[in-house]
From TrEMBL:
Protein name (record): Response regulator
Naturally occurring in which organism (per UniProt): Corallincola luteus
Positions of modified residues (4-aspartylphosphate): D57
Keyword terms: Phosphoprotein, Repeat, TPR repeat
Domain (Response regulatory): residue spans on this chain: 7-127
SMART domains tied to this protein: REC, TPR
Superkingdom per UniProt: Bacteria
A Pfam family the protein falls into: TPR_2
Length: 543
């Protein structure tokens, strides 16, 4: 076979199996064979040269990249050609592992132990299919879908051995280019001839594209009754249910799929977002932890997965009714940050600021608004010391939620405007912004606050300090820790104090409002006013 002249890579963490497999390959006729023990090493090998055949063990050691993750990374980085054959080799046969491996669609999957004849047969079969399908696979890899569609038609018309596979791809490609009606007609014609499971799944996808969500769900439910392990059917059903505004049902469908195959990061991300939407904080936390663990050794490794895990853990602490569970979650979040800070996996990421913002958000959720205000501005103080004058956009979700809760509406509005203009918002920040935009009650509260605050400022300018105090008091009832309103209230009270012969009550009230600001690392525009007012207050106290 011509493939025997190609380069082969064997990836297995057991030296004895490497040697045995190399012997089999030599006997089949392969001579250009290289071997390595880990997925990380395999990536480096493939970066140096192309391999036409890769035989990869699924489990490559504890805390190491596995075979599924290796295949995903090689494809994601363009380190595997359309002609290359990727076969997963494993001694395990658990349903979750097998289905998880097959979701990434390797060319084949072979269980240990196997004979030389079995190995040769699998390689030959995969090679023939790859060669016959090249006219489709190359444009598909290049995302040239019209060319891939044309190539499928050509192979089907020629009566190719792989016509059935081409028909499956053709239905998918029609959907990819938005030709859902064409896909539907094509699939109905196929199903009229005989019952085909994949065609029913593809037909449901076409129905979904045509916004016939109920019809798609009915098709999928009938299919799942006969084939309960069809992952695509569970996923599609969840998408349709969500489009019908049934988030709880969609979440259940995704959980059913994840129970069958728990290793898909994409599916777990959908579960996390839906569970947060329906306010199941414990499930959200567990799912983000799963995503974080799955991403560590994969193509998806980045700091955002860590942050989402920590965020969801703090949110679980916020919603926990029992103090012991609240402390457990807080401790878990802090431990995760501590470990990440010392793992040196995330470059110069600013863990201190993130931790401070999470703490502020947690305190605000518990109603400890003064503590939250101090934590928030102390976190920002660290940024100022680093020479940064704005909250980094990756922390904007925490910032927006906390500013809303502590009533710093002006800063909140500025931050929301920045977020709207940003092109690289993370999922968490995007969700926070959407929640803020959809919160009509919050917008009404802000509008009422602004009106009262404007009234107070107008009364103050007119010299009507009593009316100004009443207006600012109403404003502060809507936003009890708003810095600008607190400073204006103090300024108005001090003006009244100057006119009173015995201003002790007014001074006591001033003291209460200073308490909102004492110990807070205020922005410079507020800090100067605060210092001037404190000086005036101290002078009146001495009289």
């Amino acid at each position: 076979m011509s493939l025997t002249h190609s380069h082969v890579l064997v990836v297995d963490d057991q030296r004895s199996f490497q040697v045995m497999l190399k012997g089999m390959l030599n006997n089949i006729g392969f001579n250009n064979i290289e071997m390595c023990e880990t997925g990380e090493q395999a990536c480096k090998y493939c970066d140096d040269r192309p391999f036409q055949l890769l035989l990869v063990d699924y489990n490559l050691g504890v805390n190491k990249k596995n075979g599924r993750q290796l295949l995903e990374e090689l494809r994601g980085k363009g380190l595997i050609t359309t002609e290359a054959i990727f076969i997963i080799v494993t001694g395990e046969n658990s349903r979750a592992m097998v289905l998880g491996a097959l979701e990434n669609q390797p060319d084949d999957y072979i269980m240990k132990p196997f004979s030389q004849r079995q190995l040769s047969s699998r390689i030959e079969r995969a090679h023939q299919k790859r060669q016959a399908m090249q006219s489709v696979l190359q444009p598909l890899n290049d995302k040239n879908y019209p060319e891939a569609i044309a190539a499928c038609h050509t192979l089907i018309a020629a009566g190719s051995k792989y016509s059935n596979h081409c028909k499956n791809l053709l239905a998918e490609l029609y959907c990819k280019v938005g030709q859902y009606e064409k896909s539907e007609q094509f699939l109905k014609a196929l199903l009229a001839e005989r019952d085909i499971t994949w065609a029913k799944v593809a037909l449901a996808k076409a129905h979904m594209g045509l916004k016939r969500y109920d019809v798609a769900i009915q098709t999928l439910e009938e299919l799942l009754t006969q084939h309960p392990l069809l992952l695509d059917a569970h996923d599609l059903k969840a998408q349709c249910q969500y489009m019908l505004d049934q988030p709880e049902q969609a979440l259940q469908s995704l959980q059913d799929a994840a129970e069958i195959s728990p290793h898909s990061i994409e599916r777990q991300q959908h579960i996390a977002r839906l569970s947060r939407e329906v306010e199941l904080s414990e499930l959200t936390q567990n799912t983000y932890q799963t995503i974080y663990e799955l991403s560590k050794r994969s193509l998806h490794h980045n700091v955002e997965h860590l942050l989402n895990y920590v965020r969801s853990t703090f949110e679980a602490a916020e919603s926990a009714e029992e103090a012991t569970r609240r402390h457990k979650y807080q401790h878990e979040a802090m431990n995760a940050l501590f470990r990440a800070r010392h793992d040196n996996l995330y470059g110069n990421f600013d863990f201190a600021t993130f931790e401070g913002l999470c703490q502020a958000k947690l305190e605000a959720a518990k109603g400890e608004l003064i503590k939250a205000k101090k934590s928030y501005y102390n976190a920002l103080k660290g940024l100022v010391e680093q020479g940064k004058d704005k909250l980094p956009i990756e922390f904007s979700g925490e910032g927006l939620i906390t500013l809303c809760q502590i009533g710093e509406f002006e800063e909140m509005q500025h931050l929301a405007e920045r977020m709207q203009k940003s092109t690289n918002l993370g999922t968490y920040a995007r969700d926070a912004l959407q929640s803020y935009q959809a919160d009509d009650a919050q917008h009404e509260r802000v509008a009422q606050f602004r009106q009262c605050h404007q009234d107070g400022s107008r009364y103050y300018e007119q010299g009507n300090y009593d009316a100004a105090v009443r207006a600012f008091r109403t404003a502060l009832s809507l936003a009890p820790t708003n810095t600008g309103a607190a400073l204006n209230m103090i300024q108005s009270l001090l003006q009244l104090c100057k006119a009173e012969k015995k201003p002790h009550e007014l001074l006591r009230e001033c003291k209460e409002f200073f308490r909102l600001l004492d110990g807070v690392s205020l922005p410079s525009r507020h800090k100067i006013r605060y210092q001037d007012l404190k000086q005036s207050y101290n002078k009146l106290q001495q009289k």
